[in-house]
Every structure is written in C-alpha cells, then in structure tokens.
Amino acid sequence: MVKEKFRGTGVALVTPFTKELAVDYDALQKLLDFVLEGKVDYLVVNGTTAESSTTTAAEKSEILQLIKSHTKGSIPLMYGIGGNNTQQVTETIAATDFDGIAAILSVSPAYNKPSQQGIYQHFLQIAEASPVPVMLYNVPGRTSSNMTADTTLKLALHENIFGIKEASGNLEQCMAIAKHKPEDFMLVSGDDMMAVPMISFGAEGAISVLANAYPEKFSTMVQQALDSNFKEAAKLLLSFVDLNPLLYEEGNPVGVKVLLERFGVSTASVRLPLVEASSGLKDKISKLL
Description:
The protein is of the alpha/beta class. It has helices spanning 2-5, 25-37, 57-71, 86-95, 116-129, 140-143, 149-155, 171-180, 195-200, 215-226, 230-239, 244-248, 254-262, 279-288; strands at 8-12, 42-45, 77-80, 103-107, 134-138, 161-166, 186-189, 205-208. Strand 3, helix 4 (86-95) and strand 4 form a beta-alpha-beta unit. The N and C termini lie far apart (40 Å).
C-alpha cells in the first residue's frame, strides 16, 4: 500500500551546486549518504526546495537517475512534478520514466490564482495522467492561492490521489481535513514546525527542509510524535524554534544550504533569482550553532 511507504519523515532534498552553479553530483551523493544515515523514511526529489524552477529538464533527469542508482531501491522516492500550466504538467508526466518512483508530489498552481474549481480540475487531470499515485501540495504562501479543505476532500475521493502535503499554516483547515478525510488518505505536514501539532490530530509525518541538515534528530522527533510520546517530541521541536525562521529569512533553500556548507556536505550556492546567504544571515546561523 503506497500510504505505508510515506509514513514518517520525508526529506525535501536540496540540489547542491558548485561555486560555478553547476549541479554538484558528488555533493548530492554525499547528501544522500548523510540523510540515509539519519534514517529518514523517504526522499522527495525535485520538489520546490530542490530549486526545481531553476534546474533544466536534463538536470532533473540526471539528478533522478543518480539518486535511483545511489539508493538502489533502499528507500521510497517521491518525485516532484507540478506547475501552473496543466497541459505542460501532464506532458512532463508522460515524458518521465517512472521506474523506481513510488509517487509524485504536485504543487498547487502558482501565480494564476485559479478558483477552487480550477484547482480541482487541474489535479483531476494530473491524477488521470499519472501512472503512480499523487500527493497534493498546498502552500499558499508560495502559490498565492489556498486549496481549501473542501477542495482537498473532494480530490481525496479520487483513486489515484492518496494524500496531501499541507503547508497552509492553518491548523483549523488541517483539522477539517483530518476529521473528514477517507481513512486511506494521508495528511502530511509541509511545515517543519507544524509537524508535531499536526501529528497530534492525525497527520502521518512531514516532508521536511530541516531534515536535510538534521535528518536523525528530525526523524526521531516525528517518530516520537507518531508513537504518542509528545513530551519527547516537543523537546526536539522546541530545539528548532530559534533556527527555523533563519532558514527562510532570505528564501528557501538559502538557509538550509548554509547549514549543509557548515556541516561539510555541500556549498551554500543557489541559483538566481535566489542569492547566497548574506554575511549577516550566516553570522546569525553560526551564533546559534
């Protein structure tokens, strides 16, 4: 059952770049080893944290092939395919080799600001086109449009849509989904700091940015919450409270790449229109560490 593959902690993998802004495949292998040693439960490849808007189709394909080759089926893979042009998304799905991919993660359309009916129809077409199960992704802070609980619950009835990564920051909306969703539909936190609260009312894990840098600590936190050890989970959650906002102060994944550089995994390089963290932000992160 696909749902069982994606319970726990998924890491929204960054794409390491060299100082010259080429994809750093050696650093990517180092990152894979780092998060696998931290016992994350699955990998999210080519999500928004991977700077997917600024990597080419050829780079995406090479990144996916390297990850498949490196992991050798040892961990489930979820692949990001989304966008605000429905036809282009379905064409990308048709052109993708899904061997070794257990599911796709598809973000709600950005910029267009479609109606709820538009969002609903968009995801219906994606679900019909995809040869693997689809997880929805709601992140209104980036898309400028919220997918309501009602729309999510309508989509949850489709046989090829198995869950949602919810990053609205609206706990009441998340609770409404948890209360009314079909039993086999997954609610997953898309906000690291909401993971423990959301698990308390029915979420089954998180897709995490922090888990790039703290895979073992974050995975332990999520598992403690899933085991209803909320006191221990809360201690771990609170340890991230001061650091987490810094990761987004100058855009994601700018902050987490600073951490990965400090940990010797990869550089802090990002592609325009993002720019590498300022010296002020690097100083703030250094002081916390």
